[in-house]
Amino acid sequence: MNTIPFESLTLNERAYSEIKKRIINREFQPGQRLVDSQLAEAFGISRTPIRDAMRKLTDEGLLINTSPRGFYVFHPSLKDLEEIFDISEMIELAAAKKIIATLSGRNFQEMEDKLTTLEQKANIINLVDDDEEFKRYMIDIADNKRLYDIYLKNQSQRVLLANIIFYDKSGEARKNRIEKSRMVHNKIIYGLKTLDLAFTSDAIAEHTNYGRQDAIQYINQLSEILHKK
User: Fold this and answer.
1) Is the dihedral of CA 110, 100, 206, 154 positive or negative?
2) Residue 74: Cβ within 10 Å count
3) Pairing mode, strands 71-73 and 63-65
C-alpha cells in the first residue's frame, strides 16, 4: 500500500496524526491535560485544526473531554480494560461463528480462499499493526457490517493499549510476545478450517488474554508511577 507523503496531508490530518502519535508513544502521558492553544503554538498552526483533531480523537476514545476543564489523554482503569477486551473477544467469536457457518454452506469455496489470505496474515507478526490486521481481516471476511462497525468503535482504545505495551517490550520479551501471537493465530486458523467452534473459541480467548494480561501489568505499573508523584 502506498503511503501518503506527510506534506500532502491537510492541517487537520497532520494535527490528528501528530497528536495521536504522541499519545501512543507516551510523549503525552495518560491523564495529561492537552491545551489547544499550547499545541497550536508548538505545531506552528492555528487552533482550528488542533480542535478538529482533538474532537476526532475524543470520538475514538483516545482523549476524554471533561468540559469545561478540557481534554485529557485517556487513562484506562481496570474496568475500562475489562470492557475493552471483553468486547474484543465477543467480536472475534461472533466473526468466527459466521466464518464457520459460511464454510459449512454452499459458499464455502470463496471463504476458503479468504482463509488462505488470513493464514498468510497469521504469520506476519512483527508489530502491533500486524496483529491488528489479522483481527481486522478476520472480522471483515465475516461480512457483517454492524459487527465491523462495533470493531472499529472499540479498536482505538484497544490498539492504544497494545501499542503502549508493545512499545516498552524489547529483546527477548518482544520476541516471545511475537511468537505467542503467531502461535495463537494459527490455532484460530486451525479451528476455523476444521469447523471446530469450541477449539476456535478457546484460541480466541487465549489470544485476548495475552493482551489483557499485558494491559493489567501496564495499568498497575502506571498506577504505581502516578502514586509516587
Assistant:
1) positive
2) 19
3) antiparallel
What pairs with residue 54 in β-bridges? none
The position carrying cell 508548538 is 42
CA distance linking residue 196 with residue 171, whole number of Å: 35
Reference 195, options 100, 124, 117, 79; nearest CA is: 100
pLDDT, tens digit (0-9, with 9 covering 90-100), for 154-169? 888 887 777 766 666 6
What Rg, from alpha-carbon coordinates, does the chain have?
A: 19
Please, which residues bridge with residue 72 across strands? 33, 64
> What residues contact 126, with CB distance under 8 A and at least 6 apart?
178
Q: How does residue 175 score in pLDDT terms, banded at 50, 70 and 90?
A: confident
pLDDT higher than 70, residue 54 = yes
> Can you give the pTM of this predicted structure?
0.78
Tell me the residue type at 54.
M
For every residue of 192-229, DSSP letters joined together read HHTT-HHHHHHHHHHHHHHHHHHHHHHHHHHHHHHHH-
The label of the residue with cell 478540557 reads 70
Which of 42-56, 76-90, 206-220 has the weakest average pLDDT? 206-220
SS3 123: coil
**Length of the chain (residues):** 229
Q: How far apart are CA 216 and CA 222, in angstroms?
A: 10
